[in-house]
Design a protein that fits this description.
The structure is a homodimer of 688-residue chains. By secondary structure, chain A is α/β, with parallel strands linked by helices. Chain A is 28% helix and 24% strand.
């Protein structure tokens, strides 16, 4: 085989030599480097080997796939060429600017190839697929077939020798010596011994060491954002520090929050999230229940950030000092928890930036400040900066994150990110994670599906979801199925909050204690990330009439609670979190399968963790008012078992063991105990 | 709004001005121009407006979408931005190197936008989506809401005036005059009249004429290959000219083929396809039934191309002269047909190129020529050139096409393209279609699914398929569903041959005349492209025992036939082709829906053409041995009709009219008349 006719095909195409593993960086060689109009002209000779349908891939590599440390990245692609050529393929990958590594791919079925990359460090991993025609491998394959058919192989021996000599001519160092030695051996023997030498692994390995593949092709470069486990598995508890005082009517403090930590730890939560803790503006402050007129002593909404006491980098004076804050960080750590802060880009008219950086804010033609609005509504307690007014604003906002990171915070819940420029978040998250890769960003974007997903694509670690409004069997099945499908599964990590200070769902308002149990069980078992807002554990649900908002919302007033109130579900929450801690199947929303339970009020699903043979079966009665019973199928087929086989079962809520024999079983779930969680594996003997 | 902070975000990003419609070419501005690693750095400000999920698109624009002249290209994309900004979007498109045109896109639902591009000329059309923030549109929307709410709008009036003035400052020519006039009018009135002026269409149009959108974003450039109608809709008839002599035992000629044209035209075929018509080698010639020993007078396989009489640009002497060939082209045209030639890159050892261009062929170390092989099998009547031996080979092969194009041929059936380099075909097809856009290439690649699809992606107009081996209801439903789904539907045009000289399907071997009727009806109604190889119309099916090959295959000997033999299905084929000619729903494999017929032996489907309210309903009894009957559903829901409604029906095979009332109907199909074709539309009155 002589040189490919590169010159005629595409004068600018890299030569075959340049396509070797040690050639230019993958970026320069991406197939996408060719403009689309090149399709109407000549093709690069490298395209003789096709690489298609790489997975995982988000928008063809425009955005990073998300994974966590300790996971494997399973890379697959369709790889094939014309003719009957033997191919070889590998995944090339690197962390950040490190040197490129290679992992060999193996064919699976129907031109699909696969490799497994263990992910051991946080950061951005780049990868691409390389595939090539393996001439020596093809020679070995064909010659072995002829040998088996008993054909004379004199000429094949000479062809094989030529391939060895060709590789030897390209080689250097130890590889050259090895090939020279092989050629000497070859010339010293004859007939079958020559063929045996050519087909032996030693010859193949010697040729492969030279990297003598032909028509090397590369896929586009893809990226994986590798994050720590809390990015995908964590249990959040949200509280307003100002409500945590033990003395009724007294404004709570960060020190009061420290006193709550043992209680929260006992429930099994590992992230403690606080709405904004910064100084609250007084201009146009809102009163209780969002009243436009304020009464003396009304604390105001913590989302009206900024007062003469400071802005986003300050603490509300009544909450305590920076020293108190650091004490809370340390105490939380001692209780197995970390803090999550709220980040809301909205300022009260008293925010210091309005005086310090007037150029960051839009003024109207009459000289007045432009308030936030959703025409015809206007929000006169809030001013938004103009993100395209001045370069320094972006850095200023970024520095707020860095300030709190310096205080030990690694998790931020971002308020309404969909109403601020997408490029700002993309820049901010990349910039911060480059400095502190532990940083986690939760997007609170209750918006349309496509913007919600886009925020995850541009870097948000986790996202609030529509879970709160998905109540029926069909709704939950459809939503989890969507979240489990590619490409969403590869970039969007759902956070299932059962309630928030803004969302008091009708299901909880009307369903009583069983409704709280139902929603807790769904969130804690369907998603790796779940959270409750305080009050949920004592089944608080009094609404503003006809609204999804809470009566006497804590956003506008103090709400001290008796967390041991009768009817609380503290024990059940603690049990769910304890199961989450030890069951890998509960560490992700992925790996869910919905099975047949013949009752529309019973959602019944399995969860399996990668590499685990056992699985959890979970059934939830979605009806908080009535007991529900049904026949249901145990998924014997997941282990290739016949319908008559048996499963060993452990009831994880009650700790007892038993056996299910045969595919069809029955269950009954009372509103007072509306869910069941079983861990199952095949029984040792198949039932008759 | 001041200048965007471009400098900090990305020093290399184009300025906003550069992103105007008159800026650089789309290629330079593609979002893909950013290397993936840019995702970890700053984002371009243009990415504030997201453009995702463009359709149609093949491999993210790497390959062209296929359409035919007269079709509309419906372009869709997800388009959205952060916040509540008003957006506008357009498709920019151009044919070849023409200037860019624009078609406005309109929102459909859930951030999906759409535009319709009529395709009026053959060639490569490039298109991309442009989207931007429409500041003036957003002002109009918000101000209208405030007006409706009865708010005071003094400041809004000033804001609107500022927007007009801003546009006026950017404008020139007529647009500037229009805006100046508007500003003068504005200043001459007050209050509500100012607002009315700002919200009027005239103001919007004046601003839009300046193109004052912000944050202009562009998608990747996509391509559409627009071809003539025969690319997607044609009925092929294949014959061996050497068998067409009216005198038994005499070698047929091209003049004999002319005599067959009226018969073929009467059956309704419009493409006449001939296997290779070039000189046939004598070296290692194969005898009848592929025998390795040849008898005197055996004509040899026409796929062993080349003899001292010439190569691929010559005619086999017994078939006639180039003058005869041109006469055949003309006669075919007179009979409403065009010719399709075979192109097989394989040479007999006698091919003139072996002497003229020895450098195009591989010799083995012992000096012998390398025959085609599939180890351990070797094909000693065939030599393949080495595509990477010498640059001139590609031009030499291309010139063969140009030679026959000069003789009036516009359709080529390419033999086994998957065993020749993919880049060769990509280059060849682009090169030829640039010279003669009417040229059609049919890929005969009976290979694995992914290489089969890849050949279509790189430019083959049409493709042989797995249809011949899809016989059951499930197989046919699955296959047609796959061919109708994106992205396959956008680049792969299936050609449903019912038989070929190489494929004598078991279903035809064992099913008798009804089997031929069944397969003809399926191919002719399920695909825009179908074809038969001569002998099919007289139900020839004698196989080599246990093989899919024909006994006494015409590939190795003359086969003169009585085309009026008893039991022929000429009338039925003619009727199917006549229906195809007048029913737009039969012009494509697209637009098929499979409906419920409660019998696994009856395939029942609907076909609808875009923009047509009526549809065809087709039922085929897949069992050639027994009558089959069933209840079936008429798809009243396709027109939003209740289950009690009625359809007006025309039986297209028998010409009579009737009405179906109610969703459930019954049918019975005999083996002798195994299919039904009905044209239906809603009855004028709904049945009670």
């Amino acid at each position: 085989m002589k040189a490919a006719p590169v010159a005629r095909l595409d004068p600018d195409a890299p030569s075959l030599d340049a396509l070797s593993p040690d050639g230019p960086s993958p970026d320069a060689l991406s197939q996408d480097a060719a403009s689309p109009s090149a399709l109407t002209k000549a093709a690069s000779p490298a395209q003789r080997v096709a690489i298609e349908a790489i997975s995982p891939s988000v928008d063809n590599g425009r955005f990073a796939v998300k994974r966590t440390i300790g996971e494997s990245l399973i890379v697959e692609a369709d790889i094939f060429a014309d003719g009957h050529e033997q191919l070889s393929a590998a995944v090339e990958w690197r962390l950040g600017a490190d040197k490129w590594n290679r992992v060999a791919m193996a064919p699976v079925v129907n031109d699909r190839w696969r490799a497994n990359l263990p992910l051991k460090s946080q950061g951005i991993v780049q990868f691409r697929v390389e595939a090539q025609i393996d001439s020596y491998g093809g020679f070995v394959r064909d010659t072995a077939r002829k040998l088996e058919a008993g054909l004379a192989l004199n000429v094949e021996a000479q062809e094989g020798r030529a391939l060895l000599a060709q590789a030897q001519a390209q080689a250097s160092g130890a590889a050259k010596s090895a090939l020279s030695a092989l050629l000497t051996k070859f010339d010293a023997v004859t007939g079958e011994a020559q063929i045996a030498l050519l087909l032996a692994d030693a010859a193949k390995e010697a040729v492969y060491a030279v990297g003598a593949g032909k028509f090397v092709a590369h896929s586009d470069v893809q990226e994986v954002r590798v994050e720590r486990q809390a990015a995908s598995f964590a249990s959040w508890y949200e509280l307003f520090p100002r409500s945590q005082s033990a003395t009724p009517g007294r404004h709570g403090s960060l020190r009061d929050v420290i006193a709550q930590l043992p209680r929260i730890q006992a429930m099994g939560f590992d992230v403690l999230y606080m709405p904004p803790i910064h100084p609250i503006g007084t201009a146009n402050r809102k009163g209780a229940n969002n009243a436009l007129t304020v009464r003396p002593g009304d604390p105001g909404s913590p989302y009206a950030i900024g007062s003469p006491a400071g802005g986003h980098d300050a603490l509300h004076p009544e909450l305590g000092s920076l020293e108190d804050f650091r004490a809370l960080v340390a105490a939380a750590r001692d209780h197995g928890m970390e803090l999550a802060l709220d980040f809301a880009v909205q300022m009260s008219p008293d925010h210091p930036w309005l005086k310090q950086h007037p150029e960051w804010f839009t003024r109207r033609p009459d000289g007045t400040i432009k308030y936030a609005e959703n025409p015809p509504k206007k929000y006169e307690d809030i001013v938004n900066p103009d993100f395209y007014a001045d370069d320094a604003l972006w850095n200023g906002l970024r520095d707020i994150f860095l300030h709190w990171i310096d205080q030990g915070v690694r998790i931020f819940r971002v308020d309404n990110p969909h109403t601020k420029p997408l490029p700002f978040w993309q820049w901010l998250i990349a910039d911060i994670q480059a400095k502190q890769p532990d940083t986690i960003f939760l997007a609170e974007a209750f918006t349309r599906p496509k913007p919600m997903y886009r925020l995850a694509k541009i870097g948000f670690t986790q996202s609030y979801t529509y879970f709160t409004w998905r109540n029926t069997k069909q709704e939950l099945t459809d939503y989890l199925t969507e979240l489990n499908a590619a490409p969403v599964r590869d970039f969007f990590r759902p956070h299932f909050f059962v309630n928030t200070p803004d969302i008091n769902p009708p299901f909880l308002q009307t369903g009583g204690r069983p409704a709280f149990l139902i929603r807790a069980a769904l969130a804690a078992t369907l998603s790796g990330l779940w959270g409750i807002y305080s009050g949920f554990e004592i089944c608080e649900a009094a609404p503003l009439p006809g609204r999804e908002e809470y009566q006497d919302s804590e956003k506008y007033q103090l709400r001290q609670r008796n967390y041991a109130a009768p009817g609380n579900i503290v024990r059940e929450i603690a049990q769910l979190n304890a199961l989450r801690a030890v069951e890998p199947a509960l560490h992700s929303h992925l790996g869910v399968s919905f099975y047949n339970a013949f009752n529309d009020n019973i959602l019944y699903y399995g969860k399996a963790a990668p590499g685990h043979d056992e699985r959890l079966l979970i059934a939830v009665n979605l009806d908080p008012h009535h007991a529900q019973a049904c026949d249901f199928e145990i998924p014997l087929w997941e282990w290739g078992l016949p319908d008559t086989a048996a499963l060993q079962v452990e009831d994880l809520l009650h700790g007892y063991h038993f056996t299910w024999s045969g595919k069809l079983q029955t269950m009954r779930l009372e509103p007072a105990a509306p869910y069941a969680i079983w861990r199952v594996r095949p029984a040792r003997k198949v039932a008759s």
